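Schema walk-through. Below, the input block comes first and the output block second. Nothing else is stored per chain. Lengths vary across the set, and this one has 349 residues.
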Amino acid sequence: MHRTPSRRLPLVCLVTGVVAAGLAPSALAQSGGGRLGEVLHNRQGNSIQIVDDTVAAPEPAELEYRAESQRYEAELRTLKRTHFATRGTSARELARRDEGLRALRTFTDPAAFHPMITILSDAGADVRQALLDHFAGQGPMGQTALMWIAIAHEDATYREQATKALPTPPSPAVLRAVAALLEHHDDQVVNRAAAMAGVLNAVELIPNLIAAQVAGNPPANDRGARGDLAWIAFERRQAYVQQLIPVQGDNSGAFQPVIGYVHDGVLMRVQDYVVIVYRTEVHHILVGMTDRLLGEPTEHLAYDPDAWNAWYRDTYLPHLEDQRRLAEIARAANIANEDAPPFPDLIDD
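--- output ---
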């Protein structure tokens, strides 16, 4: 079966319809966690070589088109049905599952990674572990898939396993995946992405954490299609006798009153609404990270984006520049010491 197009695929990070589209803001610096050719080791002892990670990621539509054109979903469903449908212990069934696990490793196109996660994650513990091992050996693209599982997967146990399989230190692709998930529409996913940024001490993601503290809902209503969301009436109602209806009986007569009402007040038409969400977990992680970084409290900035942006511009960026200059001075001093001639031996006369 054909798995990967014959041409060399660009090295990209996983971007799917489930992950919020878009990468980190322009202020996001590239991580120094993974250099070209560097071999990283994860906590399970697997080695991963970092390859070229500077090629721009494709648009989600490109990955979806490639997955559709290569029929990855159909092949993966067939693989699941023929090799992982049963979980027996007979030699024949175990051999069939082993054959399926070997076939799983042939899917190396990044466009196949998200279908693999969605289709095969419930095929058994051995398949889940095989997915983690496979992604761990696929460079930046596979690391991004691992990060997606570690943050966005619904199973907490699987998220923990994926976290353990991540390489350390994090590569730029991993940091970009965390940055994208900080823009996710699900608050729980954003909270877990912020927690991952805190665990990694990813100071490069401070701008993303600042932006993720507060979220607002998108436009709630298309008035042209659905009309008003609600009507709310504030009114005072005054009753009065509108008219009298004669009622006649044997040797008697009376009038039945008809009660009318006068309404005085305001009618509000609700055409849209705005909800502001304050993500306390993201805020606490951001405050803790910045406190440790500069040794100065930032709790007083609260959830004010303008205050945080001013702090980032006026305090944090100058701090980074000072650190860069100190590093250059130290590096120059080390080079000078290495080039200096050795001290002459002291010879007694």
